[in-house]
Task: structure prediction
Amino acid sequence: MSNSKSKSSSLHEKAGISPPEITNVSAINEIQQKRKLQPSSKELVDGILSSSRTALSRAITLIESTNPEHLIKANEVIKDCLPHANNSVRIGITGVPGVGKSTFIEAFGKYLTQSGKKVAVLAVDPSSSLSHGSILGDKTRMEELVKDENAFIRPSASGATLGGVARKTREAIILCEAAGFDTIIIETVGVGQSETAVHSMVDFFLLLKISGAGDELQGIKRGIMEMADAIVINKADGDNVKKANLAKVEFNRALHLFPIKKSAWQPKVTTCSAVTKDGIPEVWETISSYFEQTKETGYFQENRKDQNHFWMMETINEQLKSKFYSQPNILSELEKNKKAVQNNEISPFAAAQNLLELYFK
Amino acid sequence: MSNSKSKSSSLHEKAGISPPEITNVSAINEIQQKRKLQPSSKELVDGILSSSRTALSRAITLIESTNPEHLIKANEVIKDCLPHANNSVRIGITGVPGVGKSTFIEAFGKYLTQSGKKVAVLAVDPSSSLSHGSILGDKTRMEELVKDENAFIRPSASGATLGGVARKTREAIILCEAAGFDTIIIETVGVGQSETAVHSMVDFFLLLKISGAGDELQGIKRGIMEMADAIVINKADGDNVKKANLAKVEFNRALHLFPIKKSAWQPKVTTCSAVTKDGIPEVWETISSYFEQTKETGYFQENRKDQNHFWMMETINEQLKSKFYSQPNILSELEKNKKAVQNNEISPFAAAQNLLELYFK
Result:
């Protein structure tokens, strides 16, 4: 190959080392052709069931697409994956920014893969479409895990509504399970209602915290502590060990004040360090004993059924609302009635009646 | 008046004392006529605004009626009362059966009326239609307050749905306020979502508890503690005083672990005895300082606006759902899809899609 860039211009470039000759042009064409072709839903399912990460990634992309044709195909893939799903444990992990979620998941995930587990890490972060991924957007924060053959990391689906993001994540769980991942970790941050959504799609809910002057508590949203099956106090290393142990005592005391959970599980508080790896095995021990207990009582299975039912109803309710609020005549009347309600000219119920009559007439 | 019942039968009755002669037949006719006549909405409003308890009671009965004509009239009454409402403080009181809610409200209510307040006590108890009034069904439990000129006690509206009971109570609040009641107490028990509903219609939410071996905590529902603006430990008398004070310390510690409230109010824990009346004035002191603080920051007013908006949206959403789920074809398909979802034959989202297509086609 001759140096074609050499011209009689002032931007003269010295001839460098020539790239190697292409030895197999037809192979390149074939690859390019394949890339353009969308795999069929059967090809995707076969790929997923034989643990192909490429097939899994592509199927998740399909789920996340807004193209109606993709939606049909995605539904086919999910339907065929469903009989092979559900053989995992699903763990939700939440915590305010700064508690070290990524580092913790990296250390915890590595511990799990070294114990022979296959770990998929997904995320629910409805803000990611605005912030371009505040969590998991940057896989480099999980340097080790991302290179791990037995781990699969996927950033949060983007979307304007939590409902949409939640749907996509729930379906991604099914695909990951069908691909043979036996431990699914769902990461989330305290944005809006995302924790409640994640709590409704996992078997175990872990709240990650750090010890401190007490003000670290202010960041968590109301109700999160009551949802937690375990509180893990991270960064319990060096000078922090003592403070972390104090926080552990404090949280344990507080948790005992809460009413007993439907699962009959008494939430545990432990400390750990994602840096020294101290306490990481204990986190898994806690989770394991939870699974042992709830599978024996049947709560585990019952809860999954309830969650499925919940998401069906939730989707219906969301769609009914979205249809109502997308009517132009409703929107203008809504504003009028809202003002009248706020100025105490009309009761909230009479205002609602006005709008419903308009909708159903 | 001769004894017309004397007949030649074995059921012979001896002539007794004759009833007094009717001296004013036209007066009786007039009363009977009036009783049959329903007062007009204007008459009701006039009555309410001049603090007539009869008018207030009748208007609330109208609100609670299922007759569509009554609904129209009720809406007129509410509309005309609205400009005269909203000048009260609304206090929600909850606690499991056995904490002594009725006795507490009796003592607290008497304290308020003796301080010159006009107190209305309403209740939200969706179970009352089944249990025939588990709370406030029996006014005799508030012996003193029921005779008090400055108090008005009304048992819970009955109804199959919490939404319906909540609507009726919200509207009864408006009427009570228009009738000049400046302190509205809404009582509820921990049934289903009734506490959340009451929390969304009051300015201040009080959780009543008793001290004990720790197991008294098990009765309360998850999330209630975080909703409370005050926890009052009742029955702090005799041998219980020490235990009540210990419980106070424990709850105070726990409450400090919760994230800061939107109102910026730090919930208080106090003890009281509805029997000795110890601590009753302190409960009102706590509530007063809450109102002082939140009215100054503007949270009080903002929260009421938000609540009005919430109830408008809530009513719309409830009605949209109720319309959907009352379609016979939806109901049969719902059962089929529910089963398929539970058996993992179809994803919850695909099942929802099936039903929505059926509904909107």
